[in-house]
Write a structure and sequence with these properties.
The longest helix has 25 residues. This protein has one domain: PhyR, sigma-like (SL) domain (Butyryl-CoA Dehydrogenase, subunit A, domain 3). It is built from 10 helices and no strands. The chain is mainly alpha-helical. The chain is 69% helix and 0% strand.
Length: 200
């Protein structure tokens, strides 16, 4: 299949799954490389700490590899993988108290760096980067106030950019539950951010 943005031939995930299940290590590696960045962002946002996120990612990827033949194609591979990684992150979170870590680079190892617009904004207003860092720290504190299931739903929506249907498939819940969780999360996050803003 030809990628319209890059003009490079890409193999669909489902074809790579079939090849990987047949023992093709390159196909398996490509599958997980392709989805590493989004899986890392989800794990990091759920756990708030880089090492915990990497531990969850390792656990999730190992589980996904061992259960790859069970992938039935009812949802996309990315959705299936994010379900496995989310569950692994929730397991890590239960084993360890969620730690909030504030760093200057909140996007983790998969970051492609700042965009031209961000660099221009930072050059014009040096405080812009600090404001974004402060906002990210406040958002992490607000996310901490959500239950694990609501936080996971919101993170899959905001970080992984999954559709309501994909999140419902990922979490094995009705779409209505996804919609109500996201609505609740938005209300709680807005209230918490307003509260934090008043306190500063």
């Amino acid at each position: 299949m030809l990628d319209q943005q890059t003009g490079v031939m890409t193999t669909p995930d489902e074809a790579l799954v079939a090849l990987a299940c047949g023992g093709n290590l390159a196909a398996r590696e490509e599958l997980f490389r392709r989805h590493f960045a989004v899986a890392y962002r989800v794990a990091h946002r759920l756990l708030g700490h880089e090492q915990d996120a990497l531990d969850a990612l390792q656990d999730g990827f190992l589980k996904a590899v061992s259960h790859l033949p069970e992938f039935d194609g009812r949802s996309g591979f990315r959705t299936w993988l994010l379900r496995v990684v989310t569950n692994a992150a929730l397991d890590v979170g239960r084993r360890r108290r969620r730690r909030v870590s504030v760093s200057l680079d909140q996007t983790g190892p998969a970051s492609s760096g700042p965009t031209a617009d961000q660099l221009e904004a930072a050059a014009t207003d040096p405080s812009a980067g600090l404001e974004r860092s402060d906002l990210r720290a406040q958002l992490d504190l607000a996310l901490d106030q959500l239950t694990p299931s609501i936080r996971a739903t919101f993170v899959l929506f905001a970080e992984a950019e999954l559709s309501y249907k994909e999140i419902a498939d990922c979490q094995n819940v009705p779409i209505g539950t996804v919609m109500s969780r996201i609505h609740y999360a938005r209300q709680k996050l807005q209230a918490k951010l307003r509260e934090l803003d008043v306190m500063t």
